[in-house]
Amino acid sequence: VMVFLVIGMLIRSNGSANFVAVIVALFSLLMSGFLLIDFGSFASGESTGQTGGTDNFLPTLLGYLSFLRPAFEILMVNELSGLIFQVTLVSENGAPVSDASIPASGDLVLAQLNLQPDDLSKDFLILIVWLVLLLALAATLLSFVVREKR
Asked: Among 6, 10, 7, 2, which Cα is nearest to 21's?
């Protein structure tokens, strides 16, 4: 929300501000991490969720340029870490196809999405840095751009 406040203070025209806000929101959604996959690990058959190396540096950097990336990672780790559930095949009408169910874990889903449960403190720190930077930018813009008329 602070990003859109800053955009509104920077751009005087409502139409232009709305257009820029939509572009920023689209960039943030696209770079939030769900679409930024480590393609190198999928090509080699290793989808372990481990980060490292130089081949995934750019997607990781672009992901953290979005304020939604750390929030998405915190949410997914909170909801899926340590969770075990049963997957059962069902037909179109909802009846089970077979009696067998497949156990699946939330940690497997996190590894497939390349999300790290150990990075929660880093993600919280990134969100706090985003908040402080945007608050400082909004306060600076408020003091220089917005003028009171009497």
From this structure: 7
**Over its length of 150 residues, how does the chain's per-residue pLDDT go in tens digits?**
788 989 998 998 999 999 999 999 998 888 876 665 554 454 444 544 454 555 667 766 777 788 888 888 899 999 999 899 888 888 888 788 877 788 889 999 888 888 889 989 999 999 999 999 999 999 999 888 877 787
Give exposure, 134-146, as e/b (b: 16+ Cβ within 10 Å). beebbeebeeeee
The SS3 call for residue 94 is coil
Q: Residue 88 contacts by C-beta under 8 Å, 6 or more apart in sequence?
A: 96, 97, 100, 101, 102
Q: CA torsion, points 122, 74, 68, 49, in degrees to nearest 10?
A: 80
For residue 37, give both structure tokens.
């996959």
The secondary structure element, H or E, covering residue 80 is helix 68-80
What gap in Å lies between CA 18 and CA 7, rounded to an integer?
9
